[in-house]
């Protein structure tokens, strides 16, 4: 579990208070989305949790370890995936890129870790390819594999699909959901409306404060809160609320198109029987 307690933050060269007394937890095995407008402090939170920038006020505990005193242990527990994969790539060759993160791992284990990470992101067939031959979405999948080879418990995704086309986005959503099934705990910092749909909970950050928390089961009812804070609403929520206004209430849990179609078909059948 990650606990963020009374965290406030200012950058040295910037007088603005970026984060103002944040308090929240990340539960083991969940996908937690953090949404907010540009400049609301989302990336700053991610970097503080991952220990990339130093905490000055408040406390962050990761499995009861204080990030301030345990930077080495924390680095093994948490990985972070950034928005632009091209800024992270060091080597041309995919195998070399992934092996670079495993310098401290026994040689005989390196190959199996690389194979299983590439399998987790659906890129095993590219093991010996060059990164420059890949699409941006595929490069991002390799960046995720680069985190997975280190076997962390927590992964922070900081706007992982903002730069990626819609097909590439879908592939990454599938990966996130599969990682959750495998037991990873995920924080997804995002500006992309659809990423809210794969989260178990969503925190809304506004001017450095958490102003709301929405659980997946309440998303349809509480979609108006997203609007209130100028967060782009997933189109499926808008659609479900329009149906509701027309007295058609569906029992949606996963927000997939298949689920929607099945439910609508059921409604049409019921209408025909009445
Ligand atoms: N290294 C930095 N030095 C000074 N100010 C920064 C730095 N990084 C971010 N900021 C400022 O902090 C605020 C929050 O940034 P950030 O956490 O990146 O927000 P978000 O990820 O929500 O867009 C912004 O106003 C940004 O200009
Ligand atoms: Mg950001």
Can you tell me about this structure?
- The strands form two sheets. The chain has a six-stranded mixed sheet with strand order 6-7-8-3-9-10, sandwiched between helices. Strands 2-1-4-5 form a four-stranded antiparallel sheet, covered by helices on one side.
- It is of the alpha/beta class and 274 residues long.
- The longest helix is centred in the last third of the chain and has 17 residues, at 257-273.
- The protein has helices at 42-49, 71-77, 94-100, 107-120, 136-148, 166-181, 194-197, 223-228, 235-245, 257-273, and strands at 2-9, 19-26, 31-35, 57-62, 65-66, 78-81, 154-158, 185-190, 201-206, 209-215.
- The model has no long low-confidence stretch (mean pLDDT 94).
- The chain starts with a strand and ends with a helix.
- It is built from ten helices and ten strands.
- It folds into two domains: 2-228, P-loop containing nucleotide triphosphate hydrolases (Rossmann fold, 3-Layer(aba) Sandwich), CATH 3.40.50.300; 234-274, no CATH class.
- The protein binds adenosine-5'-diphosphate (ADP) and magnesium ion.
- Magnesium ion binds at residues 42-43, 158-159.
- Residues 42-43, 158-159 line the site of magnesium ion.
């Amino acid at each position: 579990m990650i606990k963020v307690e009374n965290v406030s933050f200012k950058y040295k060269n910037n007088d603005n208070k970026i984060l103002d007394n944040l308090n929240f937890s990340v539960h083991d095995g969940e996908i937690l989305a953090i949404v907010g407008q540009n400049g609301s402090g989302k990336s700053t939170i991610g970097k503080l949790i991952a220990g990339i920038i130093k905490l000055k006020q408040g406390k962050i505990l990761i499995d009861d370890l204080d990030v301030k005193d345990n930077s080495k242990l924390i680095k093994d527990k948490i990985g972070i995936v950034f928005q632009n994969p091209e800024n992270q790539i060091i080597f041309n060759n995919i195998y070399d890129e992934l092996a670079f993160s495993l310098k401290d791992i026994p040689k005989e284990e390196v190959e199996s870790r690389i194979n299983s990470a590439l399998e987790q992101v659906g890129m095993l067939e590219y093991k010996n390819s060059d990164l420059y031959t890949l699409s941006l979405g595929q490069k991002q999948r390799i960046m995720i594999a680069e985190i997975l080879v280190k076997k962390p418990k927590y992964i922070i995704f900081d706007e992982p699909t903002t730069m990626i086309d819609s097909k590439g986005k879908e592939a990454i959503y599938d990966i996130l959901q599969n990682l959750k099934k495998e037991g990873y705990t995920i924080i997804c910092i995002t500006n992309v409306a659809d990423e809210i749909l794969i989260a178990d909970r969503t925190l809304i950050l506004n001017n450095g404060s958490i102003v709301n928390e929405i659980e997946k089961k309440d998303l349809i009812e509480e979609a108006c809160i997203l609007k209130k804070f100028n967060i782009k609403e997933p189109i499926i929520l808008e659609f479900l609320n329009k149906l509701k206004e027309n007295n058609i209430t569906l029992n949606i849990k996963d927000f997939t198109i298949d689920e929607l179609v099945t439910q609508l078909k059921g409604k049409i059948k019921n209408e025909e029987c009445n």
